Amino acid sequence: MGTVVDAAPIKATNESLAEKKKPTVVFVLGGPGSGKGTQCSNIIENFGYTHLSAGDLLRAEIKSGSENGTMIQNMIKEGKIVPSEVTIKLLQRAMEESHNDKFLIDGFPRNEENRAAFEAVTGIEPSVVLFFDCHEKEMERRLLSRNEGRVDDNIETIRKRFRVFLESSIPVVEYYESKGKVRKIDAARPIEEVFESVKVVFTPKNEKAN
Ligand SMILES: Nc1ncnc2c1ncn2[C@@H]1O[C@H](COP(=O)(O)OP(=O)(O)O)[C@@H](O)[C@H]1O
Ligand SMILES: Nc1ccn([C@H]2C[C@H](O)[C@@H](COP(=O)(O)OP(=O)(O)O)O2)c(=O)n1
Ligand SMILES: [Mg+2]
């Protein structure tokens, strides 16, 4: 009698022990105003990804009246990078809430601390890193005409953001370059032309000939 075992609970236990499949993540990097957000909007319409902009999540956190709001607002105004712990929590929550398993993470990781902490906390490595390459004069022109009322789209903060990009974000791009993951896109061209190059990255090789 005691040897009769119901198989159902054993199966359930095995399933809960099985490792959950890791999501597919593409990091979208590039200087301020290089067109990350614009191209992400195009990508999600065509390729089934969910777009998570680290900057948008941080701005929503300020608006929500969170206890971190003032700190985040001050850092954004100064063009500085918010501590990884805060940004990663917001990204993780958004990933869980989306119920998708394919994410475009835009504007993250922006420094070595962002990169290492995300990998340590989530265990996720990006499949690909898109890098939008654009010269500063063009990025400055775009940011000054973005007209979204952002506290950081003024010439003083823009200069600080450019410096942080060169000092802290470019090393992250170089790290992924050394791993062969970077797809560099010439982002100084018109939006449609940039998207033509982006599409190639997301189109499986055997479909490219069509
Ligand atoms: N290829 C492009 N050519 C001209 N303007 C662009 C291009 N891509 C984006 N923009 C405009 O430049 C501004 C910054 O673009 P955005 O996508 O917000 O960049 P990022 O997210 O990298 O800061 C926006 O006003 C956008 O409409
Ligand atoms: N990983 C990130 C991303 C953005 N931030 C902060 C600091 C950035 O200057 C601002 C704005 O980022 P956002 O990606 O929206 O800016 P751009 O689209 O590049 O113009 O947010 C951050 O602290 N950490
Ligand atoms: Mg953006």
From TrEMBL:
Subcellular location: Cytoplasm; Nucleus
EC number, as in UniProt: 2.7.4.14
Top class in the EC scheme: transferase
Single Gene Ontology MF annotation: nucleobase-containing compound kinase activity
Cofactor: Mg(2+)
GO biological process: 'de novo' pyrimidine nucleobase biosynthetic process; nucleoside monophosphate metabolic process; pyrimidine nucleotide biosynthetic process
Keyword Cell inner membrane: no
Catalytic activity: CMP + ATP = CDP + ADP; dCMP + ATP = dCDP + ADP; UMP + ATP = UDP + ADP
SUPFAM superfamilies: P-loop containing nucleoside triphosphate hydrolases (SSF52540)
Cofactor note: Binds 1 Mg(2+) ion per monomer.
Superkingdom of this protein's organism: Eukaryota
Residues that hold a ribonucleoside 5'-phosphate according to the record: 59, 80-82, 107-110, 150, 161
Binding site for CMP: 114
Keyword tags: ATP-binding, Cytoplasm, Kinase, Nucleotide-binding, Nucleus, Pyrimidine biosynthesis, Transferase
Record GO cellular component, one term: cytoplasm
InterPro entries the record matches: Adenylat/UMP-CMP_kin, Adenylat_kinase_CS, P-loop_NTPase, UMP_CMP_kinase
PANTHER family attached to this UniProt entry: NUCLEOTIDE KINASE
Family from the record: Belongs to the adenylate kinase family. UMP-CMP kinase subfamily.
Function: Catalyzes the phosphorylation of pyrimidine nucleoside monophosphates at the expense of ATP. Plays an important role in de novo pyrimidine nucleotide biosynthesis. Has preference for UMP and CMP as phosphate acceptors.
HAMAP family: Adenylate_kinase_Adk, Adenylate_kinase_UMP_CMP_kin
Entry remark concerning the domains of this protein: Consists of three domains, a large central CORE domain and two small peripheral domains, NMPbind and LID, which undergo movements during catalysis. The LID domain closes over the site of phosphoryl transfer upon ATP binding. Assembling and dissambling the active center during each catalytic cycle provides an effective means to prevent ATP hydrolysis.
Subunit structure: Monomer.
Name listed for the protein in its UniProt record: UMP-CMP kinase
Organism: Cucurbita maxima
Classification of source organism: Eukaryota, Viridiplantae, Streptophyta, Embryophyta, Tracheophyta
